[in-house]
Design brief:
Blueprint lengths: L36 H4 L14 E10 L3 H9 L5 H8 L2 E11 L4 E6 L5 H8 L7 E6 L2 E2 L5 H11 E5 L10 H5 L1 H5 L4 H14 L15 H14 L4 E5 L7 H18 L2 E6 L2 H7 L2 E6 L2 E6 L1 H6 L4 H7 L10 H4 L18 E3 L5 H11 L3 E5 L2 E6 L1 H9 L1 H9 L1
Helix pairs in contact: 2-3, 8-9, 15-16
Length: 404
């Protein structure tokens, strides 16, 4: 198998996994909570040694239907279009030759419209369904080869799932819902309760353990779902449109809280969403799906600044670029700076290559004139008012310019 993403070695369209410093456990608001060792025990240290991807799908196909083999062969040979597969073979091609590689600590978003195959991919990662073709590796191990016991162990200890439909048990209180998996694993009641209280603290539901699920708001129930997934202290979280049914404001709040929690716990997350805004806010990287295939994988900035085709471009058109696009994407070479306004390079305001467009606007408003972009003490580019405006406007401006 390929282990395509390694710390310290960013490949094309890949961002290095964020180096989350191992820290004590904090809750959503960053407040330290009791018994710091429990959830922190699996946090990953960064090393210079190459590591295997945490989760990898290689040549993954899932075609539903009795004649799936014939359908795949026909598609691979280019004999039949995807939209003809249904009528010709009575099959549904849900996932088509998907390759993805998720690094430890990443929040990897899979974004696509309803029916594009997102949930089907996720169901392969804990092997709720078997692929038609291809492999899924978790920590380098081909999970298709796991014996039933090993598979049960993987699901119970390494992978936590959170769904839009929270699936809370209505007749158990919040604490017992959170501790349910531990109960199945015969963890003693006292220890179960202790862990449940800890994870409820993490999701800011301290003190809510005795209530029944239907006494909580939708956003709170979703946090119980997350707490339940965290209770087994898994390395990997699979989240399938977890915030999809919530009101926009609550949704945004939960996204922020999840980002905070994620940074503190060093989990690897595969996060499914149909909302590009959400993917951009949360994702270390994003894979965009269409009709079972991944059309583009990249950082939010890659996707926004270089959409691969018209399909992706349509999605990114209405996304605000201010927080996502950074100076390094809009600056022009130092050599092209012609001392605008009579200011030499060394007298310009300066910023780092990671400064976003919104912050660059603030600098230009305060200081007027161009901004030198400095990396490692050296100027590597210049952002002028024109290049900044072009960056804000994005590719549409280029189109207009090219048409002139
Ligand atoms: N068990 C199944 N049997 C037949 N078709 C299925 C099954 N599960 C999913 N599909 C089909 O596969 C496609 C992808 O579905 P899904 O992965 O649920 O998409 P998404 O999560 O992106 O909305 C859809 O056309 C869906 O109808
Ligand atoms: Mg789905």
């Amino acid at each position: 198998m390929q282990s395509s993403l390694r710390p310290g070695q960013a490949g094309e369209g890949h961002q290095q996994p964020q180096a989350y410093a191992p820290s004590g456990i904090k809750n959503f608001s960053g407040v330290n909570v009791k018994n710091e060792n429990y959830l922190d025990s699996q946090s990953q240290e960064n090393t210079s040694e190459p590591v295997i991807s945490k989760v990898e799908c290689e040549g993954l196909w899932k075609v539903f239907g009795v004649r799936s083999e014939e359908a795949i062969a026909a598609m691979q040979q280019g004999r039949v279009d995807r939209d003809k597969i249904r009528e010709q073979f009575d099959c549904v091609p849900a996932v088509i030759d998907v390759n993805l590689s998720v690094a430890s600590g990443e929040i990897f978003c899979i974004m696509g419209l309803s029916g594009s195959g997102k949930s089907t991919i996720v169901r392969h990662i804990n092997r709720l369904i078997e692929p038609s073709r291809g492999q899924v590796y978790v920590d380098g191990e081909d999970i298709g080869k796991l014996k039933p016991d090993a598979l049960r162990h993987l699901r119970a200890t390494q992978i936590g799932m959170v769904f839009q439909d929270r699936g809370l048990l209505p007749h158990r209180n919040v604490r017992d819902n959170v501790a349910f998996a531990l109960e199945l694993r015969r963890v003693k009641q006292e220890r179960r309760d202790e862990i449940a209280e800890q994870v409820l603290d993490l999701v800011q539901l301290t003190g809510w353990g005795d209530l029944m699920p239907d006494e909580l708001s939708g956003g709170m129930q979703q946090r119980v779902g997350l707490a339940r997934a965290l209770a087994a202290n898994p390395d990997i979280l699979l989240m399938d449109e977890p915030f999809g049914a919530l009101d926009p404001l609550i949704r945004r709040e939960l996204q922020d809280q999840f980002l905070q929690l994620s940074a503190n716990l060093s989990k690897t997350t595969i996060f499914i969403t149909h909302d590009l805004d959400e993917a951009i806010r949360l994702g270390t990287r994003i894979a965009i799906m269409k009709d079972g295939e991944i059309v583009q994988t990249g950082t939010p900035e890659d996707i926004i600044t270089s959409p691969k085709d018209d399909y992706v471009e349509d999605f990114v058109r209405n996304i605000s670029r201010l927080e996502v696009v950074k100076a390094h994407s809009v600056m022009s070479p130092v050599e092209e700076y012609d001392g605008e306004d009579g200011k030499p390079l060394n007298s310009l305001a300066y910023a780092s290559p990671e400064t976003n467009l919104g912050e660059l606007i603030d600098i230009i408003i305060k200081r007027s004139g161009a901004i030198a972009i400095i990396d490692d003490g050296k100027p590597i580019g210049v952002v002028t008012l024109a290049s900044l405006l072009k960056g804000i406007r994005g590719s549409e401006l280029e189109k207009v310019a090219n048409n002139d």
